[in-house]
Amino acid sequence: QVQLVESGGGVVQPGRSLRLSCAASGFTFSNYGLHWVRQAPGKGLEWVALVSYDGNNKYYTDSVEGRFTVSRDNSKNTLYLQMNSLRAEDTAVYFCVKSSGWSFDYWGQGTLVTVSS
Amino acid sequence: QSALTQPRSVSGSPGQSVTISCTGTISDVGGYNYVSWYQHHPGKAPKLLIYDVTKRPSGVPDRFSGSKSGNTASLTISGLQAEDEADYYCCSYAGIYTYVFGTGTTVTVL
Questions:
Q1: Hey, are the CB atoms on B104 and A45 less than 8 Å from each other?
Q2: So what's the pLDDT on residue B1?
Q3: B37-72 burial, b for 16+ CB within 10 Å, e for fewer?
Q4: pLDDT tens, residue by residue, A86-103
Q5: Calpha distance A77→B47 (Å, rounded)
């Protein structure tokens, strides 16, 4: 069965960096686009980023463009999110999500990122 | 990239039907037939209920149905059950491989 397991969350000071990872299994990793979606405490879901199946194309929501970088290693079945210049408003649970057409069919359990001094 | 508008909460008794609206613009909901709906029990992974406006993945009960008219999409839950109590989010493709979620709706089973 499909499994997506995020890691790398934690507490970080404003302006610092953090890298999230997502280990995938149960499907042909290199065939699918992958997304990051986040949920701030008490708030709704927010789409963050998409990387194409081959890693060559990347797309971001406006609020993270230039600060976050999504990437993938198809040899390791792993998705990454490099987060730089972190802000308090980036505090959220970050979900790793598999594409299915124009929707998201499998989600990880999420990893919590807290940006605080 | 403004969030799609959903009612904050809806409620119904077991067996009743409830409908959740999701209002966007011509740049997202109205411009593409790529609206999806997700059920989220807090602390768990969200679950895909509806994709491409009306389609149900295998395993999702036919009590869940989707539709769209203009810039507004809707999710209807028929025959409401206790386990349907959760948060529900719509999501639309918004062009150039970007997506926008709705504000979320909490469904309460009375």
A1: yes
A2: 76
A3: bbbbeeeebbbbbbbbbeebeeebeeebbbebeebb
A4: 999 999 999 999 999 999
A5: 22
